[in-house]
């Protein structure tokens, strides 16, 4: 059994213990008789958290509170640690508490399992510290539009789970369990999910379908079930984003959102899911970079004159008084990424925004506010970034030596972190894992056939029919059908779904497919049924992105049924000037002018249904990601299908009569008004009530 204590530095620990000068105000106690072997606990037992903490220097403690990202090194994606020895060296310079991985770190499930192993092993080689504490290995594997594991199972996203009605709680737990199993197989022990924001603002540009519902009780029930599934796999779930990111119209990645509500108001909405999670034993909560001016105390910002309130991440009122004292949470608080603009460039503390001085002052305030883990103060991606972390940690150390309150807060946070690692067995010594064996296990588990089967079952239950004016099911002989994707890459998923329908006999096997998007044709020239696939929004165009060609116009003129996909992320896409709006509105008009029927397939935010009421049928799928992946293209090593979009495939299946619609709205859909300038806005009038869905 390897101890968390490094043998090469045991002499240093003994010296510090004898002198009573252990930094961080904790003195090491006697651990055993042998000085050649580390024996901090009872014979044959690993060290307890108090003993580990007592052996840590102040540098160790501060580092334990930091979780950097390692997306790249010198502009090259970090997928194999031995290829970046300078990064390995930089990581060994401090006893970081964890590492968060992103899509840049993931080529396939086997590769990322090896990378996680390399990172943990590299940490054991740290000769600068008396302790070797295994990392929190984290990722944002929410499912839906936020996934990191290439080759993995995307699942349906939270709002789709919320649309499955009476089965939603069970489906939320299944979702968490599948994602937890895949993360654990790849070596992760922390999932920054579930998102339990209440999406009570349709104009929210960053949460949307990441939320289960706009009803706080539903969000609470489904978030707890999802977390139960994750934790059953030995992975720590993280409830986010406290105290609630749902009622915002600004993305905190690019600005600072503000929620104009009182404490009593957010207790009835935003805080409800978090209160329920805490009652059910939440271990980790992530903060939001959001201001609450009706609740928080005014501060003077870094320029010495501007006044305002800090984002929740930096607010003692929010994190300590409300979260810790009022709500009773004593688990680990992790910040949302400190590299986000709502913090990094907002001028909240002294120092030039984005400078080392500024980020150090941000860190001090975040710790004093009550946060335990500083997530991504900067990306550890170069020797310059490594030097920054040296400066950052040294400066915080100097501050703590001269500030008893800060030093005490650091000690509190370190104990919470160590206790959570102990609870989930992260501190336990494990047999050395063979990287090749770990890779093989990950390839078998991540994106497995059984996981994709469950994913599709949930996706089919979620598909919601809002309107059907004598149009669906669309199956029939001797028809001209047009699938109109939002963008070119949608053709991959559409083509897959069409081929599946042909194999099951819901569309004639003699159908001719004319794929204008991918420039391919198949099937007999004299086929009775012709399916045309095209798209209306050209992402690559520098000027007018509307892709409305003569070939498309001809196909629409000849169509009996047109199925048009929308992928709406915010209300701006519904403005009269938006090419996305123009593409669908024009297609509806041209289809009707030629005597055809138009089906709207909303594949992300369901609120766009209100903008296209002229459609003859409206179907909701709740997810717009993964459409560019053809599920028939298995990943090279695992043979699994990868993170494709099951929601749209399920919706197309149901539209052609392969099953019945059972989904119900998890949110209210308001009416949309058009202002004089052509912009779109949500009104206070509800068009479709939560719970509505045609069967």
* Percentage of β-strand residues: 5-15%
Number of separate helices: 21
Radius of gyration equals 27 Å
CATH superfamily annotation of the largest domain: Glycoside hydrolase, family 3, N-terminal domain
Poorly predicted tracts of residues: 1-44
- Apparent shape: globular
Task: Tell me how many strands there are.
Answer: 23
Give me the side-by-side strand order of the main sheet. 14-21-20-19-15-18-16-17
Oligomer: single chain
Helical content (DSSP H or I, runs of 4+): 25-40%
Kindly report the average pLDDT value: 91
CATH topology of the largest domain, by name, is TIM Barrel
CATH architecture assignment name of the largest domain: Alpha-Beta Barrel
In angstroms, what separates the terminal alpha carbons? 59 Å
What class do helices, strands and sheet pairing give? alpha/beta
Number of domains: 2
Q: What is the top-level CATH class of the largest domain?
A: Alpha Beta
Biggest pleated sheet: 8 strands, mixed
Question: Gist?
Answer:
The chain has 695 residues and is an alpha/beta fold. The protein contains 21 helices and 23 strands.
């Amino acid at each position: 059994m390897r101890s968390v204590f490094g043998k090469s530095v045991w002499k240093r620990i003994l010296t510090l213990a004898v002198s009573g000068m252990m930094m961080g105000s904790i003195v090491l106690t006697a651990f055993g008789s042998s000085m050649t072997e580390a024996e901090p606990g009872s014979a044959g037992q690993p060290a307890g958290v108090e003993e580990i903490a007592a052996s840590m220097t102040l540098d160790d403690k501060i580092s334990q509170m930091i979780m950097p990202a390692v997306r790249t090194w010198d502009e090259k994606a970090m997928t194999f640690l031995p290829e970046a020895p300078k990064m390995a060296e930089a990581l060994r310079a401090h006893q970081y508490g964890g590492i968060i991985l992103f899509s840049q770190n993931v080529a396939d499930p086997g590769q990322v399992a090896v990378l996680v192993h390399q990172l943990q092993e590299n940490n054991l080689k740290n000769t600068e510290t008396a302790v070797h504490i295994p990392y929190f290995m984290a990722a944002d594997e929410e499912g839906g539009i936020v996934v990191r594991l290439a080759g993995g199972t995307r699942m349906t996203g939270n709002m789709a789970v919320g649309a499955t009605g009476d089965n939603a709680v069970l489906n939320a737990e299944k979702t968490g369990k599948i994602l937890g199993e895949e993360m654990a197989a790849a070596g992760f022990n922390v999932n920054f999910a579930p998102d339990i924001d209440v999406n009570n603002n349709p104009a929210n540009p960053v949460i949307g379908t990441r939320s289960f519902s706009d009803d706080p009780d539903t969000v609470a029930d489904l978030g707890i079930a999802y977390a139960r599934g994750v934790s059953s796999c030995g992975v720590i779930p993280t409830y986010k984003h406290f105290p609630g990111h749902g009622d915002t119209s600004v993305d905190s990645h690019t600005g600072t959102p503000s929620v104009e509500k009182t404490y009593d108001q957010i207790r009835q909405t935003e805080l409800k899911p978090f209160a329920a999670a805490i009652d059910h034993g939440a271990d980790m909560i992530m903060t939001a970079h959001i201001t609450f001016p009706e609740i928080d105390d005014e501060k003077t910002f870094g320029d010495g004159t501007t006044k305002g309130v800090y984002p929740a991440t930096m607010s003692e009122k929010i994190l300590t008084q409300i979260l810790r004292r009022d709500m009773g949470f004593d688990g680990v608080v992790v910040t949302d990424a400190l590299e986000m603009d709502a913090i990094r460039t907002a001028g909240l503390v002294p120092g030039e925004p984005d400078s080392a001085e500024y980020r150090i002052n941000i860190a001090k305030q975040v710790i004093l506010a009550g946060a335990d883990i500083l997530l991504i103060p900067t990306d550890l991606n170069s020797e310059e970034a490594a030097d920054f972390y040296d400066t950052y940690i040294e400066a915080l150390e100097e501050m703590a030596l001269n500030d008893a309150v800060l030093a005490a807060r650091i000690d509190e946070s370190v104990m919470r972190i160590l206790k959570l690692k102990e609870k989930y067995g992260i501190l336990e010594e494990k047999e050395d894992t063979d990287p090749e064996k770990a890779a093989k296990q990950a390839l078998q588990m991540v994106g497995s056939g059984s996981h994709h089967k469950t994913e599709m079952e949930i996706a089919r239950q979620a598909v919601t029919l809002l309107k059907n004016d004598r149009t669906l099911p669309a199956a029939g002989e001797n028809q001209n059908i047009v699938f109109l994707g939002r963008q070119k890459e949608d053709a991959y998923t559409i083509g897959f779904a069409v081929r599946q329908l042909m194999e099951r006999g819901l569309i004639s096997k003699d159908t001719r497919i004319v794929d204008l998007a991918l420039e391919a044709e198949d099937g007999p020239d004299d086929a009775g049924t012709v399916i045309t696939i095209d798209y209306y929004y050209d992402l690559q165009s520098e000027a007018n992105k509307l892709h409305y060609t003569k070939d498309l116009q001809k196909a629409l003129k000849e169509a009996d049924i047109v199925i048009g996909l929308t992928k709406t992320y915010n209300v701006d896409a519904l403005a009269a000037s938006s090419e996305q709006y123009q593409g669908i509105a024009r297609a509806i008009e041209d289809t009707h002018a030629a005597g055809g029927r138009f089906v709207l397939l909303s594949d992300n935010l369901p609120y766009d249904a209100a903008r296209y009421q002229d459609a003859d049928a409206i179907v909701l799928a709740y997810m717009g990601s993964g459409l560019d992946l053809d599920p028939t293209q298995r990943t090279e090593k695992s043979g699994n299908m990868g993170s494709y979009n099951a929601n749209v495939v399920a919706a197309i299946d149901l539209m052609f009569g392969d099953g019945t619609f059972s989904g119900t709205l998890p949110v209210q859909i308001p009416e949309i008004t058009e202002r004089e300038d052509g912009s779109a806005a949500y009104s206070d009038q509800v068009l479709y009530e939560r719970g509505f869905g045609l069967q």
